[in-house]
């Protein structure tokens, strides 16, 4: 079996397993789509142990920074700036996503951005922006981090399975 076929089979099978888990027993604590983003991030970051670490760290960091942005927006602390408040918050927090890239563990800027975007997107579409200070599964930061860890681990598992069946 070719390496590509082995990888396709492993991702397809484990993707089905992930979808079942995220949509059923883990439905209250995991997001299938965020897991797949982390899975893809794992592979585009190199598909190895370092990629696993950088995917989890970067996406988690991005989620935390998005949580900070969501907190600042929903707290109204900067509402005196009017229509400039949200763009200013985004400017500062996105700067934080990139400037940290000098740190090896957070050097994959796309991973940082994926975590930020997934968290902001979830919070804005689900109406949970105000939940960023709650330490349970209604907090979009918590949901994205849990889903990121599991998704990246599925990426690692699919790579190992592909290597095993591709021989």
Strand content: under 5%
From the N-terminal CA to the C-terminal CA, the straight-line distance is 7 Å
Order of helices and strands: HHHHHH
**Low-confidence runs:** none
Q: Indicate the overall shape.
A: globular
Major β-sheet, in short? Answer: none
Q: Based on helices, strands and strand pairing, what is the structural class?
A: mainly alpha
Number of domains: 1
User: Got a strand count?
Assistant: 0
Q: Roughly how many Å is the radius of gyration?
A: 17 Å
The number of helical elements comes to 6
Percent in helix: over 70%
Q: Mean of the pLDDT scores? A: 96
List the helices and strands and how they pair.
Elements: H1 3-23, H2 32-44, H3 49-75, H4 85-99, H5 109-126, H6 140-165
């Amino acid at each position: 079996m070719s390496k590509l076929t082995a990888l396709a089979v492993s991702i397809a099978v484990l993707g089905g397993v992930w979808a079942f888990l995220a949509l059923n027993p883990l439905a209250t604590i995991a997001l299938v789509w965020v897991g797949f983003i982390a899975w893809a991030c794992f592979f585009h970051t190199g598909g190895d142990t370092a990629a696993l670490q950088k995917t989890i760290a970067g996406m988690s960091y991005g989620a935390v920074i998005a949580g900070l942005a969501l907190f600042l927006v929903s707290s109204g602390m900067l509402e005196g700036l009017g229509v400039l408040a949200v763009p200013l918050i985004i400017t500062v927090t996105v700067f934080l996503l990139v400037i940290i890239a000098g740190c090896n563990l957070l050097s994959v800027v796309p991973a940082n951005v994926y975590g930020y975007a997934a968290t902001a997107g979830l919070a804005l579409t689900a109406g949970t922006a105000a939940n960023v200070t709650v330490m349970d599964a209604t907090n979009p930061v918590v949901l994205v981090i849990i889903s990121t860890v599991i998704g990246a681990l599925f990426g690692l598992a699919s790579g190992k399975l592909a290597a095993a069946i591709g021989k």
